[in-house]
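TL;DR need structure tokens for one chain.
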Amino acid sequence: MRFTFSFRPTLIILLLFAVIATGYAITDDADTLTAEMQPSLHVAFDDIVVTATRTQLPAWRSPVPVSYITGADLERRGGLTVGDALEHSEPVTLRRYGAGASLTTMSVRGVAADQTVVLLNGIQINSAQNGLVDLSTIPLSGIERIEIARGGASSLYGNHAMGGVVNIITRSVGYERPVIDLQAGGGSFGLRRMNVRSRINTSSFDLSFGLGRDQSDGDFRFIDMYHDNEPLKREHADYVQSFATLDGQARIDKETTIRLFARYSQADRGLPGPFFGQQSDDRQEDEHVHSGIALSRVIADDVVLEFRPFFIYSDILYSSPAWDFTSRSINRQFGAAFDVHAQVIADIMVTFGGELSDASVDADGLTGDIERVNTVAYLSGEWALPQIGNVQTTIFPSVRYDRFSNNHAGGDRRLYEEVTWKVGGTVQPFAYDRFLVRGSVGSNFKAPGLNDMYWSPGGNEELTPERSISYDAGIRWNLPFDRGLLIDAGFFSIRTEDRIIWLPGADNPQIWSPVNLRKVHADGFELDLRWLPETLPVRIGASYTYQDVHQFITEGETGVETTKQLPYVPNHLVSGEIGYDVGDLRFSFFPRYNTKRYADESNKEILDGYFMMDIRGDYTVHLGTLSALFSLDIKNYFDTDYQIIQHYPMPGRHFEVNVRLRY
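>> reply
TL;DR here they are.
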């Protein structure tokens, strides 16, 4: 087994930038202001979250359902990337175009992947070119937690936030002494994995960094449905993926803290593509950088200022040897955002802020270089109304202004201006303070991607943003007979207009173009359960989602409007975790079930539903200051034959063994 690191010069520049900058951020001390403004119920589920309202508050009091994956959860789930971690997450639909390091996207509440915002420490990383985020390119190293807020949130996060928000939060974890983690492992299909992470702490700062490498031959077996169900081996699905991470935070004085974060990933992966009896030898090389600096300063009593410059970069090179074709796409985005959190009076908290970002795309498929500038201003608040009897009501209003300017190489300039709003609320109707009614309503939007507007041939510069109105309502109940049992249940509805779709041209069917044509309605019911009993060493989490997502299609010849289910959206989605801990020995079971899905817009092609079970066990040995963790992961334990995307086979039962040494 041989591991080599061959990062490009971009990594060196990134690390130099990070070290010189000594980043700005909000530490736990600086967060005290906003945390203290929120009265905690001091129950088992009072984790502090920030994504639902852009301010800190206990997840219990959120006006929208929020799922959070803690650092301990991530360790139990294993994996290398955010895509691996979200595979076992409750409220999301994950779409993997194959195994290993294949393209991985996600959506919330059945909407499209480009209608879900992905944040890294509050900074949106959706591509301006196509609106997507490939979760297989974001390493798990250094991630403190992941928060998933369901429901439209454009009034807080702007473009793409029509179905929900995923916020990946990194933090340099403090220890009493320097810590070094070394991990190595291997598994099925030639998997080899190695990473190292180090944390350095002093009284005034802490710094952590990591390096990792993951590679696999990807040669799993699958069934060839085109040739008498003969077993075949997946070819050209190999990959080599490397990453580097850096997180730091420091306290300058009593009022000022600074922080930095940087993520670099590089991959060389085969793209065997959909299987129709033969396998492609196409390849793709990726390079991604996500970095930011943040400053937090207490500027007056009960007033905190946050300032966050950031830089995002991706370089994707696709090649098809069989067709002697190559294509390259380079995306750059930089900008800065600020927030001011102020406690106006005892019962009212206000947050206002703004952002200016510049995204440029240089891609072979586009008509010249393109630049998109986004100017933002927003205002949100939290107002605890006077209590009436035992009834406590809190209102969460927000409004945001977005202005987009597309500067095209040919001199064209197009502007979009959007004003979005949302009103959320919670009501605690009884003296029993662990029962809460929640609800929200708001407007949302997604601007056309630069591919939609400027792809050659076929781009449509006359596109308008997609717009929606979203509603949800539900209850949250921490049961009185068991403080460790939490139930969250509710309904949701999303009404989308002017959905952008690509259709063949009337004059030339060979050229497809995007148009604002469809209405899409998403309705559903969600039920989440978490049980952390105080007297038993078990943990149980379960989630059920019913979603009916259909689009309205007007037949070209007859003009008759029909409804069809949106492709790749299951009506029923079930996932969960069952864990049992005995001292230093832990077991985790991750069942999940997806019902059948349609694979095309006409709803003629159907993918069967499937049930999956992943199992993980680990054992920790303590030897003074040295600890060793041994883990075994069994994926697809029941050897299920399934596909997530049609014609992209997935592996059967496979395993992974890892050893982690911590000093």
